[in-house]
Amino acid sequence: MSEFSRIVDVRHIVADPVVLVPDEAECRRLAGRFGISAIDEMRAEVRLVREGDAVTATGRLTAAIVQPCAISGEDFPVKIDEPVNLRFVHPAAAHVDEELEITAEDCDEIEYEGVTLDLGEAIAQTLALAIDPFAEGPEADRARAEHNLAGDPSSGPFAALAALKKQG
C-alpha cells in the first residue's frame, strides 16, 4: 500500500482542482521511503480532465523538505516547486510497442485499471523525482576541505598517468 494514497474514481471527475495534502504520518512515511529526513509541508493542486479512458492531471506540487547534504551528511532545508503533468491510461492504450519521441513538455504516462486511479501515489512519485539525491547543503565546502574531498591533484589516476608520461 502506498504511503500517500488518494483514490480518484474517473467517472466522477469534476472541473474543480483537486488539492492533495498529506497528514503528518503520511509525510513521515514518505520521508522514510525517499531517504530524506523530513517532509515539513507538501501540497499539490491538480486539475483532472477525462479524455475517453485517459485522464490528464496538470498542476503544481510544492514541498518543504529536509534532506542530508551529499557531502557533509548534515540536514538542510530544501524547497520544491514542480509542475505536475501526468496522463493516466489503461494498459491497452499505453504506447508500449510504439517508438515515441518524448519532449520535456510531454506527460508522464501512468497505467491504471478499472475506474479508479491513485492520484496520491502519482504525486508521491513526482516528489521523489524532484528530490536531488546529490544536493549539497551550506556546510558542503567546509566538509569537503576538512576531509580532503576536493581531491589532491598530485595523487590519483591522472597524476599516475602524468608520471608515466614523464618516464617515457
Automatic annotation (TrEMBL):
InterPro entries: YceD. This is DUF177 domain-containing protein.
